[in-house]
Amino acid sequence: MPSINISDVMDFLVDRRAASLPPEGLAEILTSMAWSLDEQANVLPVARGWLGGDDEYRAAVALWIDDFFPADSRAGLVAVAEDMESRFPALAERAREWIRRWDAAHEAARSR
Q: Domain for residue 76, yes or no?
């Protein structure tokens, strides 16, 4: 069986999406894929890479992938939010939402 690179699959989906598909729609598909595939086809590293790229749509999709933080630490999330603020201001609020989710998740863990 030929090997398929998940990055190529994800890029194909972005490049061939319907013109009216919002980032949230594609992110929903990728979230399902992330839960459905084995570790060799890990969606998250590709999505995180998109955050540092120059394609605003890909960055938006990455920020809308639910259930997976776009960084491994709160400081990383702050860096993502600051980067979005400077490069893609329309995505800054979504990036800040991840900081709020991080804080809420860690506050809930502390209060147990």
A: yes
